[in-house]
Amino acid sequence: DLVDNGNFEDTCNPAPAWALVPPVRDADDSVSGQFAMKLDNREGWTWKALALPGEIKVTPGKSYDLKVKVKRQEANGVVWVGGYLKSAANQQLARLWPVSVAQGAGTTWTACAGKLVIPDRADVDHLLLRLLHTQPAPGKKPDTILFDDLSLKAQGGGPELVKNGNFDVVPVVSPGQLW
Q: Which end of the chain is more exposed for a tag (fewer CB within 10 A), N or C?
């Protein structure tokens, strides 16, 4: 077998590659409300992501505005905001990452935005939002990232699709919602 830890059973891998973790709130620093969402990647995972609870219903062929405020402790690595497009049968159809914060940026609260374009496919049903950090280049320190004021709205107007985008309500994520 050429894939190291292909069954993902070895959690003590000396060179960790991927971690998907439930949301953790931070009360020490936020833009609005009492809390921000915290992604702590000081362990040095190559990829580490926060799984936000709930499915967001989307319309095939439609575009959405994705906005978030980001603050980073070290500004190492790259931060991505987006997610997985799924079918009604929960089959992954696409990965969409329209918002990114580059290495060296975002050590103060920074407003970030991107356009989420949903493919015009009949099997499109919902989106699972994720907040992601990629490991910094070798020799750089890992990072701790705060997120606040997460918003997703259809372009041209419409209701807010992210429930609890200021993270003031404790999010609950079941294992089935992680992917």
A: N
Q: Are 116 and 96 in contact (CB under 8 A)?
A: yes
Cα within 13 Å of Cα(111), Cβ side: 4
Tokens of 47: 């990829």
21-40, pLDDT tens digit by residue? 656 677 778 888 888 888 88
CB contact burial 138-164 (16+ within 10 A = b; e otherwise): eeeebbbbbbbbbbbebeeeeeebbeb
Contact 68, 147 (CB under 8 A): yes
C-alpha to C-alpha distance for 129 and 34, rounded to whole angstroms: 21
Task: Dump the DSSP string for the chain.
Answer: --STTTTS--TT-SS--EEEE--EEESS--SSSS-EEEEEETT--SEEEEE-SS-EE--TT-EEEEEEEEEESS--SEEEEEEEEE-TT--EEEEEEEEEE-TT--SS-EEEEEEEEPP--TT--EEEEEEEEEPPPTTS--EEEEEEEEEEEETT-----STTTT--SPP---GGG--
* Nearest C-alpha neighbor of 162 from the set 61, 42, 66, 76: 66
pLDDT digits (tens, 9 = 90+) for 78-91: 888 999 999 999 89
What's the pTM?
0.79
